[in-house]
Amino acid sequence: MVTIYHIAKATGFSPATVSKVLNNYEDVNLKTKKKILEAVEELGYLPNSHARSLITKKSWIIGVVFIESLGIGMKHPFFNAVIESFRQHVEVQGYDLLFASRSISNKQKSYLDYFKYRGVDGVVIVSSTYEDEQVQELMNSRLPSVVIDLKSDKSCVVYSDNVHGSFEAVQYLHSLGHRKIAHIAGHSTTFAGKQRLKGYVEVMKKLGLSVPEDYIVDGEFFSRDSGYEAMKKLLALRNPPSAIYAAGDNLAIGAMEAIREAGFGVPDDYSVIGFDDIELSEMFHPSLTTLRQQTELIGEKSGELLLNQINTRQKSVESVVVPVELMIRSSCRSI
Amino acid sequence: MVTIYHIAKATGFSPATVSKVLNNYEDVNLKTKKKILEAVEELGYLPNSHARSLITKKSWIIGVVFIESLGIGMKHPFFNAVIESFRQHVEVQGYDLLFASRSISNKQKSYLDYFKYRGVDGVVIVSSTYEDEQVQELMNSRLPSVVIDLKSDKSCVVYSDNVHGSFEAVQYLHSLGHRKIAHIAGHSTTFAGKQRLKGYVEVMKKLGLSVPEDYIVDGEFFSRDSGYEAMKKLLALRNPPSAIYAAGDNLAIGAMEAIREAGFGVPDDYSVIGFDDIELSEMFHPSLTTLRQQTELIGEKSGELLLNQINTRQKSVESVVVPVELMIRSSCRSI
DNA sequence: AAACAAAATGAAAACCCTTACAATTGTATT
DNA sequence: AATACAATTGTAAGGGTTTTCATTTTGTTT
């Protein structure tokens, strides 16, 4: 491996001068700079990031934490879209993303300890579950952080305007003439689930619509299966709804499967509206009317927030709420 | 930051002994080990990975390279599934995954140079395009590597049995009575595309079926749009096929859209079979008959292959071909 | 109690780099 | 020619760890 010492020897200058050239210091003669750069090129020198980070205490690495209840990791359509956008935005500034195993010589550590060990410059956390003590620990630490899909007063966060999304969803159904509107809710340990439920309840009240207790049914962790099961319960009601607002597209799709299986049609018999706008939604038949989460924007904002903290070298607390967009497609009809 | 020196001072032993305890050396008294471990606990000591890697030349990091022609990065359904599985398999041995930006102090570098700079222990490459000089450089280097979805005699590789997949697809259509079978092919710079085309041509010949020139139509980079366009061409033929074997599920879905749009039905008028088994395929209506790529297995095998090289500290060359599974659903019918 | 072997500990170098500051060289001013 | 000053270069310390090998301590045997 060729080091700055080799370059120094080859050019007759000292390692310090070589280092200065490599780091674009001003106080080095243009001729020597040229010579050194030539030698660098010729010998194929590459810096050593470990040595560099050791002394500068800067790793150019951002740790990523992925906590989702489905166990699908990077296959999670919302999370991977957000992270991809995030990655693109921090990449141009030279940051790498680290997906951590969390074990230091076979000992399992917390995310925080592990990231300290790795010396990351900051962390991006994508977490749906509300109460995860590892996430709490990260947010409360002095490590720059940005959390996606959660609210907090300890860390930068960015999330979609879930409450307003519920307003749009229900108001849209209302405008189509629906009055019996049910909600398949996300799990209550989930920030998004809670907020969407809250919005649903509020707007129903505001519109003067009644919410029978069994119009709110648990959709667990936003999976298709839970949507399917939830819809079966709604179908079994003596007074079933005419429209269903599902807290997630997968829930909505599961619900539509249940409706189809029961011999009914969407939107003819039941109108369905989802949340997320995953890829599937547009392709599904009928295509799903849904509230689009702006994943690119969320990733971008998260990147900005984190980079700000890293560049100013101090943790900050800031919230960005990203608006959602109602995507009107073909799963709802007027009555 | 607390270092081994602090532990040394606190316990009265030397840094060397502390280090030995931390690394589970045998030649240290149990009592001193206990004392040191207590101090470690009490002072909240954490090792410094940079210092460690600097001297041991081992980073416990695996670099990942994602090259796909759609520009969707981690949103790519096949790639993210494979990487997720890979991650799970290397995680248990303590390896982290690094998604690299490739810029060293604002200078853009090749993947190889960048990974040398970062001191990664190996790289996993997911690449569909055949001729990428950056990928070639990586494969030819002495850095342990495993490539997914490509063939090579310079690096470990793992890929699905594309040729056999084509056999299964066409034979299945043949067994349903189809004789006019067209192929929407993946781009020819693509290993998978080429192999699937090759298999298609071979099995058609073997079955004694003619392949009119215009039965093979270019599907570009496996996108839905290209599938849609390709199918339009097939529909415009004077003697259109009765069945279409698409080299990818997105192509197949695009094709089905074109069929539907032209006023025809699947499978009533046209049978369609895909390749991949992405999530969408099962949910689509009609659900898509396709060749399933075993993403978990591919990820697992890749992990094994790479870890082997890392553990034995020498690059090896080995190929694993993973069988595909025909998933019979409802997009094909017998005639 | 001596002699030796075995076990435990530590000193020091090494890994590769950055940076504060000292030393040197060059240039301008008187 | 002497001085002051700016520009350039180099010395050396330090970042936190591992590891070799010498040294010290402990234990065993006679």
Count of distinct strands of chain A: 14
Overall, the morphology of chain A is elongated
What is the succession of H and E elements of chain A?
A: HHHHEHEEEHEHEEHEHEHEHEHEHEE
Q: What's the CATH C level of the largest domain in chain A?
A: Alpha Beta
* CATH architecture annotation name of the largest domain in chain A: 3-Layer(aba) Sandwich
Helix content percent band of chain A = 40-55%
Which oligomerization state do the chains in this entry correspond to? homodimer
Strand content of chain A: 15-25%
What would the keywords be for this entry?
homodimer, 335 residues, alpha/beta, 434 Repressor (Amino-terminal Domain), Rossmann fold, 3 domains, six-stranded mixed β-sheet, 44% helix, elongated, DNA-binding
In words, what does this structure look like?
Two copies of one chain form a homodimer. Helices cover 44% and strands 18% of the residues of chain A. The first copy, chain A, contains 13 helices and 14 strands. In chain A, the strands form three sheets. In chain A, strands 2-1-5-6-7-13 form a six-stranded parallel β-sheet, with helices on both faces. In chain A, strands 9-8-10-11-12-14 form a six-stranded mixed β-sheet, with helices on both faces. Chains A and B meet through helix 4, helix 5, strand 2, strand 3 and helix 6 of A and helix 4, helix 5, strand 2, strand 3 and helix 6 of B. Strand 2 (96-99) of chain A pairs antiparallel with strand 2 of chain B. Chain A binds a DNA duplex (30 and 30 nucleotides) through residues 1, 3-5, 13-17, 19-20, 22-23, 27-29, 32, 47-48, 50-57.
